[in-house]
Amino acid sequence: MVNVIKKKPVRQIALAAGGVYATQGIIGGLTYIGMPAYLRMHGASLDQIGLVSLVMLVWVLKFFWSSWIERLRIGPNGRRFSSPIIIIAECGVLLCLAILGFYENVSTILLCLVFMAIFSATADIACDAFLIEQLKTSNYGLGNIAQVGGSYSGLIFGGGIFLWVCDGSGWRAGCIFLGILIAVCSIPMMLVDEPLVENSQPLQKPRLLKAVVRKNMLLGLAMVIAYEIAGRIVQSLVGPLLVDLDIPLAKLGMINGVGGVVSGLIGVLAGGALAQKLGSKSAMRLVALLQIVVITVFASFLISQFYRLPLFIGLSIGESAIMAAGFVTCYSRLMELVSKDQPGVDFTLFQSASALTAALAGAAGNFIAQYYGYSGAFALAALIAIATPMILKSSETHVERNLQS
């Protein structure tokens, strides 16, 4: 049987999901921006701070428990339990924050950050499935605005305002501030009453194996990896490049914080508008072409040793916007490829591939820059960006053939 779901109003769905994704952004900002700065300020060594990056492994590995969460989410007789799962996970995050407020030693902080990531990733699995089920395919672009836009908005609080509160009122006040913010962001999801699925139950229990054997899932994985590699290489190198060009640390913070987040939000809105107007496939190709232009210009200036700091700052901000637009358009397309019987499992697999790509591309980019210079790393990123539209076109051709067969 085919799953038939009564849809909730788009605004209510976007608001509820946006609050959940904002919470994830808060935790991400706290983990990767706010916490390293706070720990360094209070004397932690760089190797201790480097352990914070290992929290990313939670997001790479979350597909291992996605099928279990999906089985809990899909109840008998058409019931859906996305909202309860999300709220329970958010309560877990709040508990970790409460513990964090009483301890400032590095080991406790790292342990709490890992558990916060596990709870947040679990909420993400359920919320992605909720969004896919509750939105029509034509509204996926709007859903991805809530998804990526909520995350960028949360970064401002977890990565910036948290430090400001800690500096003025202390560590515990900073944790309380984030806890209140997360609780408020969770309210719209608490008020959602998920409709029943009519006339159907899933033909099979959600399973990870079911996802990895589907041809279009494998093609989707190839698309997300190819689509992100070039941008992830550049993203990992922009900060070190600007530092080596003698930009003051405070100014770099403003560029990465305010400039990066604002440009990211602009990119989110632009990507959502493109996905709505052109469709996800055409929008992906357009953003991929823009990526080629920016990275090629970046690489050309580095190869020719044409070092102009304002120009590089402008290019880095432009790249942030393009990356954000790329996330929206890519996620819109990936939502169209998931199985309606287990959307949480399938979409989680895509996101795990994205997280793994970010980690490996970032490490590879820094390795190449160390031995071949920034020009070598950016030149490689430009070549990959140029190849991306061809990979996307080939993948889409195979997707269409599989759908017709």
From TrEMBL:
Record keywords, A-Z: Membrane, Transmembrane, Transmembrane helix, Transport
Protein localization: Membrane
Keyword Cell inner membrane belongs to the record: no
UniProt GO molecular function: transmembrane transporter activity
Membrane topology field: Multi-pass membrane protein
InterPro entries per record: AmpG_permease/AT-1, MFS, MFS_trans_sf
First and last residue of the signal peptide: none
Pfam families per UniProt: MFS_1
Cellular component terms per the entry's GO annotation: membrane
Spans through the membrane: 12-34, 49-69, 81-102, 108-132, 144-165, 171-192, 213-234, 254-274, 286-303, 309-332, 344-365, 371-392
Family (UniProt): Belongs to the major facilitator superfamily.
Protein name: MFS transporter, putative signal transducer
Organism, as annotated: Bartonella choladocola
Species lineage: Bacteria, Pseudomonadati, Pseudomonadota, Alphaproteobacteria, Hyphomicrobiales
